[in-house]
Each structure stands twice: as C-alpha cells, then as structure tokens.
Q: What sequence folds into this?
C-alpha cells in the first residue's frame, strides 16, 4: 500500500534543497537551505491532506484529525536539518516516510480513532549551537527556555534572533508539550550502523537509546625549553592528557557493560612547538551508555584516574561537564506492536540499541516511544555516500504505517 516510487521522488526533491550541489546535502538550522526545506515540508504536508501547526522554535506538527480528536495523538517524525556534507536519508526518511505512511493509510480507507501527527523537529543536529535535538529537548522540558535563550552560534547570534528572522515568534516557554500530549511516538530512521545490513535483516526495532555525555578537561602544567628543562622537574601537560585518554579507554572497557563507549576526540596542546614542553592541554571526552549505573562507574573511573595522574605529575586540572543526557528505553508495548506488524508483513526484525541519539531520546521522556531502523549501506551516515535501498525504505514505511494504525485504532 506504500507508494515507494512517490516517496523516492520526494526524497530526491528535498535532497536538491541544499547549501551545496547535489548529491551532497547541507541544511544547517535557519540557513537559507533549511528555510527552503521547511517550505517544501509544509507543502508536502498539505499534499498529504494534513493540517500544519508550527511552534515558536519551528517544530512542525502535521495532523490528521482522528474520530476522537480530544484523545492524545499518535506521533511519528524526525528531522530534515543536515550537517555539512551529509547524505539525503538521515532524518528525512522519517519525515517524508511519515507523510507517505499517513497517505497510504488514507488511501487504504483507514480512519484513525486517535489523531495522527508527523513531527519535523527543529535542529536535531548540533551544527549551529553545539547542542543537538534543540526542538525535542524544548518539547520535553529537557532544555530550559533560559538556557536556550543564552545559546549563541559561532557568529554570536542568539536563538531568539535567528528564529525571529526565520519567522518563528512567541515565547520559548510555549514549546514545551503538556504531559499526556502524545499517546505514543514512533520514529523511522536509517540505522547509521552496520548490523542490519550485515545480518540481512530489513527492520530493526529500538529497545534502548544510549545516553550521551561529554566533558572538557583543561590541564595546566609548566612549559619551558625542550632541551633545558630536565626530566625530573617537568610538569608536561600533554603527558597527563595522554594518560587520561588511556584512562578513558580503560574505564569504558571495564565498566561491566558492552554498551559503554568512551572517546577522547579532541586533544589540543599548547604551545604546540617541537622544542617546547607543553604547558597546557585541552581534552574533550565523549562517554555513552544505555545504562546510567555503568556510565556512572566509567565516569568515576575517569575522574579518579585524572585526579591521581594530575596529583602525581603536579598538574592543575579543570574538569567540566559539557552535557549529560540519561539514556532512554523503548516502550515494551509499542515495541511488541511493531514486532507483531513485522511478523504479519513477513519481514524479519531484530531488537537494536541506538548508539547515536535521536529526537526519540527526548520524546521517550514524555510518551511511550520506539524507533524503526532500516539498513543503510556499510553503516555509513553523515557523509554523501549515505544510502538506503528504495525497497528497505518502503518496507520501513509500511511497518511504520501499520504500527501507527494499530496505535491510533
Ligand atoms: Zn538523524
């Protein structure tokens, strides 16, 4: 019942709306391309016969009114913003697939009891403000309006300034959704990992979404001439940083959970000259897990090791949290419905952990949530070579349509 060809046509059209030439997609929040992308999504929603509402930060809700409109709605959706030099499937499959799922249900003669809504979230990607899932965080109350107002992009522009210029006014306080607003939420997305493709399984159903956290560590040592300062009296900031990076690996591999991952992705030393002892080092550490207890254990391991290393080496340390979100679990009832739909459609499915985070991480805080994953080539994402087959996209959209229909009945 899903019109896969029509969905492909629309994916191709939206991909052409980009800051750079096709097939590369760049749509940064409130850029000219993002605004044209939003206009395209508004038209696509209207073509699907849906009623559009947009909130003060640009989250878009496209609604198919149910027979009992006062009941909490069933939601689906994702994002259409894209990091620089991205592909055309991340997020977009969940938005345009959501429209096609609803259109397919309408063509089949289905009439929902609960209203159905496709949500396009503002700024899932952190490109402009350094914080991802801006729209869904505000909707769920995970980001306060005060903090959102204080954010600045690299050019020093505020969210209020940028959203006003994009035509989104009103208080940020109004973005937060009342609890019980959604009966359930299901997000369709490419896996962005290799498991489904490797195992030849067309559908993944998300059981857990890992909670990301990140930290900035600044180490102040003592510089000097690389020839003149003898080894016993050195306070080399880069060596403390190197030991801390190894401690991150050790803490992640000994947390007791295979889902703990720790990465030191930023490593800067000053002054950065071959004949000068580094007097300062700056690290940024990313630590994620599906469980708070094991992530906490890994964090403690890193923190204790860093204290010990700095004390031993005579280094002064600043250890700051950049961000820490708790993980989320998929709703067992919603997962069971999606699995049952897969079985009835003759599609193999597998429960997965989402290791990247998504708007669903925040939707899960306010309503029963799961995600439907489809395979993507080589697990590639956030690059122009990102690819999902039309058959997998159509299959994922069919699973989404049937799952939404059951939830809305
Ligand atoms: Zn995404």
A:
């Amino acid at each position: 019942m899903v019109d896969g060809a029509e969905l492909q046509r629309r994916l191709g059209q939206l991909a052409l709306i980009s800051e750079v030439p096709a097939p590369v997609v760049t749509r940064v929040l409130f850029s000219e391309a993002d605004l044209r992308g939003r206009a395209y999504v508004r038209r696509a929603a209207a073509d699907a016969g849906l009623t559009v509402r947009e909130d003060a930060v640009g989250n878009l809700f496209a609604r198919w009114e149910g027979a009992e409109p006062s009941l909490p709605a069933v939601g689906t959706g994702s994002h259409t913003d894209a990091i620089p030099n991205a592909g055309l499937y991340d997020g977009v499959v969940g938005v345009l697939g959501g429209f096609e799922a609803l259109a397919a249900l309408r063509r089949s003669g289905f009439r929902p009891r609960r209203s159905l809504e496709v949500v396009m979230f503002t700024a899932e990607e952190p490109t402009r403000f350094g914080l991802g899932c801006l729209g869904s965080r505000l909707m769920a109350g995970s980001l306060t309006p005060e903090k959102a107002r204080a954010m600045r992009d690299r050019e020093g522009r505020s969210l209020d300034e940028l959203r006003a210029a994009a035509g989104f006014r009103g208080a940020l306080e109004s973005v937060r959704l009342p609890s019980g607003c959604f009966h359930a939420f299901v997000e369709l997305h490419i896996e962005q990992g290799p498991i489904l493709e490797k195992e030849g399984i067309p559908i993944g159903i998300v059981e857990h979404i890992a909670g990301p956290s990140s930290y900035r560590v600044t180490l102040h040592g003592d510089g000097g001439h690389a020839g003149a300062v003898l080894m016993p009296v050195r306070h080399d900031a880069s060596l403390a940083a190197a030991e801390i990076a190894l401690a991150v690996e050790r803490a992640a591999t000994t947390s007791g959970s295979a889902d703990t991952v720790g990465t030191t992705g930023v490593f800067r030393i000053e002054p950065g000259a071959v004949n000068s002892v580094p007097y300062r080092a700056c690290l940024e550490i990313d630590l994620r897990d599906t469980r708070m207890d094991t992530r906490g254990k890994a964090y403690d391991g890193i923190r204790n090791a860093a204290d010990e290393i700095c004390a031993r080496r005579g280094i002064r340390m600043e250890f700051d949290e950049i961000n820490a979100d708790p993980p989320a679990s998929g709703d067992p009832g919603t997962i069971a419905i999606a699995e049952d739909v897969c079985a009835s459609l003759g599609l193999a499915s597998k429960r997965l952990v989402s290791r990247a985070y998504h708007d669903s991480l925040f939707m899960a805080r306010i309503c029963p949530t799961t995600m439907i994953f489809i395979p993507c080539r080589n697990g590639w994402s956030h690059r122009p070579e990102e690819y999902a087959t039309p058959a997998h996209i159509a299959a994922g959209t069919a699973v989404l349509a049937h799952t939404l229909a059951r939830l809305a009945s």
